[in-house]
Amino acid sequence: MDKIDIKNLTGKCLISLTDFSDEFTDALIYVCAHNSDGAMGFVINKRIKDFMPSDLIADLNFNLPNLSLPVGLYNGGPLEKAKGFIIHSNEYHRHDSIDNGGGIAISSSLEVLQDIFTGQGPQEKMIALGYAGWAPLQLEKEIAENRWLVTEATPELIFAHDDAAKRNLALSYLGIDYENFTPTIGRA
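Above: the chain sequence. Below: its structure as tokens.
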């Protein structure tokens, strides 16, 4: 695998190494933006529940047929937990969708949700409530402190249906066998 440039982590995944005392413990985070202003990403392996159209119809006045298409609803991170983001495959595109490359796009449009629930949306999708954010150079510092491993993000990884297997798959991209992996760093 090629060496990853930590100056541009947009479209990469972070694997937590530190035993955080919050929602980053054992987290796998998809980084959707990383630049001189900081970084933003979504925890993609902490499903809250399967989200049904009926969960939204009453609150948002959607005019939807009676569908039962579940979409994974995730705890996206500790910031702005009331804000929802849709991480989806990029074969589907709306005017506000941001194509992050690698087959993955991001949106926060209610139109995208409506398309998903009517069967006209992206093939692969998940909804994240909240996000993770870092100030300028904060994420780079945390990586240097061995708090995160960085790996490639693929649609297979992002949209895997088994959340427990996502972390193992991410580690395998780095050539690490999960069975023999310990995130604890020791001193000899």
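The helical segments are 54-60, 110-117, 138-144, 155-158, 163-173.
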